[in-house]
């Protein structure tokens, strides 16, 4: 006990949460079976990736020929017939094919769902119900089933039956978040081509939807533990991303105005943004009065502190533009390391207010950052089919039942015999007949 006290917190917790030991620990969901019927949609794939990381047996059901999501990739680049986006979200799953538009395929799905704990689907609202394999039918066969449907406009409401496909860029746009992203318009009469609403570069709508769906599934599993009841989960990725809009909605209802597009400025705090420096960009935060005074001291501009002494003056967008240009005059004369040293020297030796610095990392900078690798936020896996692949790993670090990635992906159809034989008790001959018919 005495020796444990001698260790720093960082040393003690890393030893308890050592990623190298985690693969031998129990998996929280190793008793759960999930059917992933998401189609051309990374929201569903991400939701089931999360469940699979926690140990659930995830059976990814794709149409004969494979899911179009397998082709999502930059510039058409494929690795062994699989897109790079799917390599990140095929993890730990068993991939099978099944024609849900055929009667025989739907009969097989009903049998699978009867034995499953969770179903995740991303079809147009009501599609699975029309096929006779939606929640309305499945709950009669399996009362404990948790059924999660993801769709841009949800399963009910004025837009639910509009027939538009769920795509990430629409999820982002419909959420309302995109309206405040992008460069602010300096001259409304002559806007620049770049001064337009701007989406996130990644599939943020889909990923937000998938994250919320996974959280809801976990809550539903917990509820089922003491009630025995399954339930239906309706997730709109647009609403999920809209949940991230912070104070935009409350501001509108309070003042009957919408927050304008202000680019990298933040109408709630300033300075709190990125500035050009000699070797890239630096983040600086010093928005509270004492912190603003500290920043002005560091850059030797007491006149700025006197000109904009209160937070209310600093939150005026026109004033932000003035302050930004003046601060950037200083940052552009220094490298990031010089900026960091100046800020930290002030914080340590003077400490009248605190300024927070940060470096803007390129993807390559991130790949080289030791901290990411030590914490296994990035991990290189030797996959049995796809070979050596580096992935963005799970974000959860847990001491008793940690998540893990056991394989990156599997080619479509490779595990048909294993999964169907195990769950449905079908012999090789029957499976071959189904394959010849195009059912699987």
Automatic annotation (TrEMBL):
<dbReference type="InterPro" id="IPR023606">
    <property type="entry name" value="CoA-Trfase_III_dom_1_sf"/>
</dbReference>
<dbReference type="InterPro" id="IPR050483">
    <property type="entry name" value="CoA-transferase_III_domain"/>
</dbReference>
<keyword id="KW-0808">Transferase</keyword>
<dbReference type="InterPro" id="IPR003673">
    <property type="entry name" value="CoA-Trfase_fam_III"/>
</dbReference>
<protein>
    <submittedName>
        <fullName>Crotonobetainyl-CoA:carnitine CoA-transferase CaiB</fullName>
    </submittedName>
</protein>
<dbReference type="GO" id="GO:0008410">
    <property type="term" value="F:CoA-transferase activity"/>
</dbReference>
<dbReference type="InterPro" id="IPR044855">
    <property type="entry name" value="CoA-Trfase_III_dom3_sf"/>
</dbReference>
<dbReference type="Pfam" id="PF02515">
    <property type="entry name" value="CoA_transf_3"/>
</dbReference>
């Amino acid at each position: 006990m005495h020796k444990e006290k001698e260790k720093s917190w960082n040393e003690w917790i890393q030893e308890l949460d050592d990623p190298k030991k985690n693969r031998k620990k129990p998996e929280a969901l190793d008793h759960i079976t999930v059917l992933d019927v998401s189609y051309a949609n990374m929201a569903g794939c991400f939701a089931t990736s999360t469940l699979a990381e926690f140990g659930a047996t995830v059976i990814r059901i794709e149409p004969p020929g494979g899911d179009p999501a397998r082709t999502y990739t930059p510039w058409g680049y494929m690795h062994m017939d699989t897109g790079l986006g799917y390599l990140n979200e095929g993890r730990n799953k068993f991939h099978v094919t099944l024609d849900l538009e055929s009667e025989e395929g739907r009969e097989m799905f009903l049998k699978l769902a009867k034995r499953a704990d969770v179903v995740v689907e991303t079809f147009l609202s009501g599609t699975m119900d029309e096929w006779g394999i939606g929640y309305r039918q499945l709950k009669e066969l399996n009362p404990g089933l948790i059924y999660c449907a993801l769709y841009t406009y949800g399963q009910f409401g004025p837009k639910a039956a509009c027939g538009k496909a769920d795509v990430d860029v629409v999820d982002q746009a419909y959420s309302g978040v995109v309206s405040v992203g992008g460069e602010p318009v300096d001259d409304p009469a002559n806007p620049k081509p770049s001064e337009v609403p701007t989406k996130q570069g990644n599939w943020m709508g889909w990923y937000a939807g998938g994250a919320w769906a996974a959280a809801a599934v976990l809550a539903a599993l917990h509820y089922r533990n003491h009630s025995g009841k399954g339930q239906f989960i309706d997730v709109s990725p647009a609403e999920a991303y809209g949940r991230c809009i912070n104070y935009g909605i409350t501001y509108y209802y309070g003042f009957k105005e919408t927050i304008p597009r202000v680019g990298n400025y933040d109408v709630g705090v300033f300075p709190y943004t990125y500035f050009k420096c000699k070797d890239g960009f630096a983040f600086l935060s010093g928005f509270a009065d004492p912190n603003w005074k500290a920043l002005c001291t560091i850059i030797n501009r007491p006149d700025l502190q006197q000109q904009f002494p209160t937070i209310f003056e600093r939150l005026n967008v026109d004033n932000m533009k003035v302050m930004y240009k003046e601060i950037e005059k200083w940052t552009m004369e220094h490298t990031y390391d010089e900026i960091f040293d100046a800020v930290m020297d002030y914080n340590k030796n003077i400490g009248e207010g605190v300024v927070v610095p940060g470096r803007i990392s390129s993807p390559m900078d991130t790949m080289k950052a030791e901290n990411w690798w030590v914490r296994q936020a990035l991990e290189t896996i030797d996959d049995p089919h796809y070979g050596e692949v580096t992935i963005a790993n799970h974000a959860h670090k847990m001491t008793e039942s940690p998540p893990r990635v056991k394989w990156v992906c599997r080619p479509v159809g490779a595990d048909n015999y294993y999964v169907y034989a195990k769950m449905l008790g079908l012999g090789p001959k029957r499976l071959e007949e189904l394959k010849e018919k195009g059912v699987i």
